[in-house]
């Protein structure tokens, strides 16, 4: 086999996050996510999943330790530079889609480019719109779409700037089982077809089982790293941790 160079999309080095009041939400977390990997982050409520995502994505800063996006230490940038790096190199997908209701589907998808002052790549936007199956809906408002369609708009928006990493926070949490599966199929395809790096926080073992790798958090630490995770194994592990 030919040797390939692996790029690292996201790195955390011994990240500690303590909130005012003394809660140690992250207790020394180190991880490295290779480009083109689909990573799921699981764990009981309060185990630190959202805090990990916020620190890794530059939405928040660690109390100590370092966070990198593609080798740039986002945790040491000031707020303005952090926002710039986030807009240029990070995509987000949220449980409640977070689309702007007054904008068309097309304008929602290209919003990150306008915020970053980046030129639109028409060919890539066309590819994305086709890939998420929204070509016939570009002039609709979000309220005219189903939940699954709205989440597909959010997926296209997250990828429009060709980010180093997409962070997805419970992306299927508001969807029924069939629509959730369609959104997961789409995320899986974007990883497989475009080499997109995806980090997904989820409570759902079936969703996490679509990832290449699952981290299971407990008490602010990574309790397990599971390659090619299987849903029954994840479900058992979560039950164990929740009852400990
Ligand atoms: N802004 C904050 N101020 C104080 N404590 C916080 C804050 N945000 C989170 N915490 C605490 O930090 C710990 C980790 O929270 P976090 O939201 O990262 O967990 P989580 O695994 O994402 O939980 P859930 O699955 O319920 O969303 C919890 O004890 C939580 O109460």
From TrEMBL:
Keywords noted in UniProt: ATP-binding, Nucleotide-binding, Transport
Return the SUPFAM superfamilies for the record.
P-loop containing nucleoside triphosphate hydrolases
List each copy of the ABC transporter domain by range.
10-244
Q: What would be one Gene Ontology cellular-component term for the protein?
A: plasma membrane
Please give the Gene Ontology molecular function terms for this protein. Answer: ATP binding; ATP hydrolysis activity; transmembrane transporter activity
InterPro entries xrefs = AAA+_ATPase, ABC_transporter-like_ATP-bd, ABC_transporter-like_CS, ABC_transpr_LolD-like, MacB-like_ATP-bd, P-loop_NTPase
Q: Which Pfam families match?
A: ABC_tran
What's the protein name?
Answer: ABC transport system ATP-binding protein
């Amino acid at each position: 086999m030919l040797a390939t160079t692996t790029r690292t999309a996201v790195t955390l080095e011994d990240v500690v996050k303590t909130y005012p009041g003394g809660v140690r939400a992250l207790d020394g977390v180190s991880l490295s996510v290779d480009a083109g990997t689909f990573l799921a982050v699981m764990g009981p409520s309060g185990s630190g999943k959202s805090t990990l995502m916020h620190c890794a994505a530059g939405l928040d800063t660690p109390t100590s330790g370092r966070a990198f996006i593609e080798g740039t230490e986002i945790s040491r940038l000031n707020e303005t530079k952090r926002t710039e790096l986030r807009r240029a190199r990070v995509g987000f997908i949220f449980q409640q889609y977070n689309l702007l209701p007054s904008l068309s589907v097309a304008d929602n998808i290209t919003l990150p480019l306008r915020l970053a002052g980046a030129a639109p790549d028409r060919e890539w936007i066309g590819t994305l719109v086709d890939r998420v199956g929204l070509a016939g809906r570009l002039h609709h408002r979000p309220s005219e779409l189903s939940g699954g369609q709205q989440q597909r708009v959010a997926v296209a928006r997250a990828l429009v700037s060709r980010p180093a990493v997409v962070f997805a926070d419970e992306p299927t949490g508001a969807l029924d089982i069939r629509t959730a599966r369609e959104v997961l199929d789409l995320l899986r395809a974007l990883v497989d077809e475009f080499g997109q790096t995806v980090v997904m926080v989820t409570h759902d073992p079936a969703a996490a089982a679509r990832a290449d790798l699952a981290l299971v958090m407990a008490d602010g630490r990574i309790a397990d790293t599971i390659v090619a995770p299987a849903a029954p194994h994840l479900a058992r592990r979560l039950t164990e941790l929740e009852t400990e």
